[in-house]
Amino acid sequence: MPTPLSRSPSARAKLFALIDDVLPQTQCTKCGYSGCAPYAHAIAFDEAPINRCPPGGLDVLHKLAALTGSRLATLDPLCGPSKPIEVAVIDESQCIGCTLCIAACPVDAIVGAPRLLHAVIADHCSGCELCLPPCPMDCISMQSAKSPWTPERRARARARHDARGTRKVRIDGLIAAKHAARLSQAHEAGGEDVLRRRTTLMALRARARQRRAAAEAAQEAAQEAAQTATRASATEDD
Ligand code: SF4
Ligand code: SF4
Ligand code: SF4
User: Fold this and answer.
1) Span 160-185, pLDDT tens digits
2) Rounded CA gap, 22 and 63, in Å?
3) Which of 91, 92, 98, 138 for mutating ligand 3's site (highest number of atoms within 8 Å of CB)?
4) Domains, the chain, ranges and CATH?
5) H/E/C letters for each residue in the chain?
6) Between the CA of residue 188 and those of 137, 193, 199, what are the distances in Å?
7) Ligand nearest to the CA of 125
8) Which residue's C-alpha comes closest to atom 5 of ligand 2?
């Protein structure tokens, strides 16, 4: 087996895929990473030890040791205890429908709408516990899962997590596009305002020029009339 330092980038990419396949895909973040794939990436690139996955327990630790050549044999207690899979259950009598748990669930296992009761789809729940801290009513509890964490559930959790990520990227893109369109509209509206102000100013200046010219013409006419009258009076005196 190649030593970590001798691995090529493509060997590391392959190793990443193998490690990600071994990890439980609960997306619980107990390893300190935002999900299983980022942790797999960190292990493959020698940025993290292999003993930080409590849901995987010793079974996953041994598989990771075989894949990487690492000799670590115990789980890091700082990442939390390794225990059998549980699922979240919402006490509907307490739920206020705030939707905070939906926002926190990495595998879209909670259904509900604003101000309506929420419920967990047990078959989709990975037991990650990420919905517990944000609940303002403390009405979510963890209970023993009725079925084990099978490879099918693991694959489904990964797919749902990926789909959620894709949806988030798409929604973020739509929001950014909407924001850019608003900015552009505001900019154009600002441009129109400037044009309108400039046109009004030009019209006012032109009107002022016309008034000034008319006043000067009237003054000249009055002077001319006065001179004519003076001349006529002088002629009469002669
Ligand atoms: S199951 Fe949890 S602790 Fe294990 S790799 Fe995935 S996110 Fe990390
Ligand atoms: S319902 Fe709660 S415990 Fe279950 S997957 Fe979603 S966030 Fe995790
Ligand atoms: S976070 Fe708690 S109160 Fe809010 S919707 Fe979820 S279960 Fe109900």
Assistant:
1) 999 999 998 888 888 888 888 888 88
2) 7
3) 98
4) 4-79 (1.10.15.40), 86-149 (3.30.70.20)
5) CCCHHHCCHHHHHHHHHHHHHHCCCCCCCCCCCCCHHHHHHHHHCCCCCCCCCCCCHHHHHHHHHHHHCCCCCCCCHHHCCCCCCEEEEECCCCCCCCCHHHHHCCCCCEECCCCCCCEECCCCCCCCCCCCCCCCCCCEEEEECCCCCCHHHHHHHHHHHHHHHHHHHHHHHHHHHHHHHHHHHHHHHHHHHHHHHHHHHHHHHHHHHHHHHHHHHHHHHHHHHHHHHHHHHHHHHC
6) 47, 9, 16
7) 2
8) 125
Residue-wise pLDDT tens digits, 185-230: 877 777 667 777 877 888 888 787 778 777 777 777 777 766 666 6
Q: Whose CA is nearest to atom 7 of ligand 2?
A: 105
Rounded distance between C-alpha atoms, residue 12 and residue 4, angstroms: 9
Q: Which atom of ligand 1 is nearest to the CA of 128?
A: 2
User: pTM for the full model?
Assistant: 0.74
CA of 161 relative to ligand 3 center, distance in Å: 20
Q: Which two tokens stand for residue 212?
A: 């000034």
What is the Å distance from ligand 3's center to 26 Cα?
Answer: 20
Gap from CA of 71 to ligand 1 centroid (Å): 20
Residues flanking ligand 3, CB < 6 Å: 90, 95-101, 112, 118, 134-137, 139-140
Name which of 98, 112, 109 is nearest 142 in CA terms. 109
